[in-house]
Every structure is written in C-alpha cells, then in structure tokens.
Amino acid sequence: MQCFVIRGLPIIKEGDDIASLVKSLFDFQDGDVLCLASTIVAKSEGRFRELKSYHPTDRAMEVARKVGKDPRFVQAVLDESTEVLLDQPFLLVATRFGHVGVNAGIDQSNVGDGRILLLPENPAGSARRLRDNLGKDCATIITDTCGRPFRSGVAGVAIGWAGIAALRDWRGEQDLHGMRLEITLEAIVDEIAAAANLLMGEAGDGTPAVVFRGLKYPRSGEGSVFMEQDKDVIRPRLKS
Ligand code: GDP
Ligand code: MN
Ligand code: MN
C-alpha cells in the first residue's frame, strides 16, 4: 500500500469544490481510497455557526452547569444530537447520523473567527458526492479525530464512506489451524481512517487529504461501523 499526503490545499470556505481542488493537486487512479478530514468537508458545506446565534434552553443550561461549558455551545451539541449518553464529566452524544462522539464532533480548533464548526449533516451523502465527482472509481472516507472508550488518546475514525464496505467479513475463512472464523467483522474504514489521521496531523499542518493506493478492499457490503442500538450492550448501561 502506498500513502500520499495531498499538499497545497487552501483554507476551505463555504462553497469550495473539494473534489476539484484535490483533483487539481493529485492524479487519482481507479481503486484509490481518498480520506478527507471532516473539518474541510464541513467547511465546504458551510457548517460554521456563531455561538451567539444559539439561545440555550433550560435543559442546555442544566447540562452546561454539569459539564462546565458555555450554554450556547451545549445547545449546539444538543441540536446535533438524538441522545445524550453522558453529561459529565464531558458531553457524549449520539449524532443524527448514528455516530457517537464527544460534543457531537463540534470543533473549535482549525475553524477561526471565534466560530464553531458542526460535523457534516450527512457524511455518507458527502462521501458519495465527493466520490461521484472524482472522475475515477475511487472510495472516499470522511474522518474525524475521536477519543475511544477504554483507551487513552485520540485516533481517526470514519464518519462517512462511499465506494467501500465499512466492514470486511472474515466469517467462514479458516485460521492457521483450519478452524473457521465465526464472528470476525473487521472495521476497515476505521482502520484506514486511523492511518489517514496519523498522516493528517491535528494542528496547523494543513494536510486534510490523504490517499491510499494498492489497498485491496471490498467495494460494497452490508453493515456500518455505527453499532445498531439494539445490539449495543454498553449504551443502555451508560444511561442507568
Ligand atoms: P478533524 O480531525 O476532521 O477534526 O480535523 P483537524 O482539525 O484535526 O484537521 C486535520 C488536518 O486538516 C490538519 O492537518 C489541519 O491542519 C488540516 N486542516 C483543517 N482545516 C483545513 C483547511 O481549511 N485547509 C487545509 N489545507 N487544511 C486544513
Ligand atoms: Mn474534529
Ligand atoms: Mn483531527
């Protein structure tokens, strides 16, 4: 597998055509996997918000007291969420599109002008649009840097993807000793996102686009890295 960091992208503004920008800087081939930081996808989609445009409800005020955050920021998080899983010591929520993350993935870094930046409204749709506009048969993965339960440190995860299956199904294949695997579904979009995130950096690097070439991956398949609620044994316990 070869990894390419696309250099030379500008600060992204609302309305910027990211597919055209990356195509002008990189020569894509069929089978490439393009990873994009959600930050630039969100910027191009105009997901900037002014904190002062939020008018916190009583609920937001109460949560804000618990987490020690600006009530307007908490209101922004609640507006992007379908469920609050933790409201102390930080705000862990399920987003409208199924991803669970701290503060609904709303960023204040790499945004500028004292604004906040929401995640793309529908990252799967964004990934599809970007893939359709690349002009080659590529896969796209939209990444975000996230904390993980039970583990220290942040890592990249996939929040939207297109042209690639989220999970590689190993069931039915044999291990070294001829035993058939029965349950292994490998979260390949998260593994690729973590590698991409490693190359992107987190601060002022200015490298939100990474391409992997020569990676064999399933183009389509059922399933998602967002766990179905009725299969999730941790989520109900968080709320008890
Ligand atoms: P996130 O992981 O999606 O929340 O994004 P980060 O804020 O961690 O940024 C990931 C990478 O993208 C870093 O290298 C940033 O410097 C870079 N980045 C963020 N916004 C922009 C932008 O508008 N233009 C460019 N060229 N790079 C950006
Ligand atoms: Mn982020
Ligand atoms: Mn990041």
Summarize this structure as a short list of keywords or feature phrases.
60s Ribosomal Protein L30, Chain: A, alpha+beta, binds guanosine-5'-diphosphate, 3-stranded antiparallel sheet, 25% helix, binds manganese (II) ion, CofE-like fold, 2 domains, single chain, 240 residues
What fraction strand?
Answer: 15-25%
CATH arch. level architecture of the largest domain: 2-Layer Sandwich
Estimate the mean pLDDT confidence: 95
Stretches with pLDDT under 50, minimum 5 residues: none
- Principal-axis shape: globular
The secondary-structure element order is EHEHEHHEEEEHEEEEHEH
CATH class of the largest domain: Alpha Beta
Count of runs of 4 or more consecutive helical residues: 7
Instruction: Give the N-terminus to C-terminus distance in angstroms.
Output: 45 Å
Number of strands: 12
Under CATH, the topology of the largest domain can be stated as 60s Ribosomal Protein L30, Chain: A
